[in-house]
Amino acid sequence: MDELIQKAQTLIEALPYIREFYGKTIVVKYGGSIGGEELFNFASDIVLMRYVGMNPVVVHGGGPQIGNFMSRLGIESEFIAGLRVTDELTMEITLMVLIGKVNTEIVTAINTHGSRAVGISGNAATTIMAKKIDISKVVSDKKDLPKDADLGMVGEVEKISPELINTLQASGFIPVIAPIGFDEGGKSYNINADHVAGKIAGALQAEKLVLLTDVAGITDGGNKLISSLSKRTAMELIDSGVISSGMIPKVGCALDALQYGVRKVHIIDGRVERALILEIFTDSGIGTEIVL
After folding, report:
1. Of 14, 184, 201, 242, which has the most beta carbons under 10 Å away?
2. Which residues, given as ranges, of the chain have pLDDT below 50?
3. What is the pLDDT of residue 222?
4. What is the pLDDT of residue 149?
5. The domain that contains 73 carries what CATH number?
């Protein structure tokens, strides 16, 4: 009986959050390094969010899957400052893996749990217009960067046209978006999924942006999880070196999304069972929330 009462109390704890976020858009970035059983749990969390009246939008990565597929083909990836160079062959593989494999797997998982997901990429209704990225803008330490460094067909978002996403949401579908953008000439660009998620969240004026990663969140100098921090504090932690390495671009995307009008950004560990539910529907949460 005590266990049943605890379950009931958990539902009651979730009630104010269900009421607050009913009808609101929540953009969730699903990390490419998360998979297997985590995908099953993630899909059921997304379906639950939809059934209680929220409008989830999923943006996914796929870097590890691209690397694994290239290894199987005997193709060695080239990296500059930790960023994969995307030549024409690599771009072909990227399109196949992100759209044909990862996107399809997420859509299938969500639909299997009883909802209706639709997979798209940036070329659908010109949702994501992109341009070639300047590597000097994304590499913090430029002293060892070659003068002729070129990431190839790696891009950044130039414009988001949210009409198709809005139409899918209004029709009861869950959009699942691959981070591929296109320029006016039809050239494809592979774009960082965090960057795409932040831009889409801003264009949709989302209530929340949730970045699922393979770390607990943002930690302080003593490796203790920071549950909430402001833009000002986040910038101070970057300047002091507490926020470093791969967390810097994630926090940058979070701060940009807040500037675009997103109310809160959450960075959480997607490997934790029911991570989305614990972060959105409970008082304590499990990761780090960033606010203006």
Report:
1. 201
2. none
3. 83
4. 83
5. 3.40.1160.10
Number of domains in the chain: 1
Tokens, residue 166: 């809005």
At residue 271, the pLDDT reads 86
Write out the residue range of the structural domain in which residue 47 sits: 22-291
Residues sharing a CB contact under 8 Å with residue 168, sequence separation 6 or more, in sequence order: 118, 120, 174, 175
Asked whether 26 and 45 are in contact (CB, 8 A), the reply is no
Q: How far apart are CA 186 and CA 19, in angstroms?
A: 43
pLDDT digits (tens, 9 = 90+) for 267-285: 999 888 899 999 999 888 8
Tell me, yes or no, whether 1 lies in a domain.
no
Neighbours of 172 (CB within 10 A): 10
Which value, in Å, is the radius of gyration of the alpha carbons in the chain?
19
Cα 227 from Cα 109, distance rounded (Å): 30
Residue 13 lies in a domain: no
Query: Quick one: pLDDT at residue 283?
Result: 85
- d(CA 193, CA 121) in angstroms, rounded, equals 12
Within a domain: residue 237?
A: yes
Predicted TM-score (pTM) of the model is: 0.94
Give the other-Cβ count within 10 Å of 170's Cβ.
9
What's the CA gap between 197 and 252, in Å, rounded? 12
Q: Look at residues 66, 209, 204 and name the one whose alpha carbon lies nearest to residue 128.
A: 204
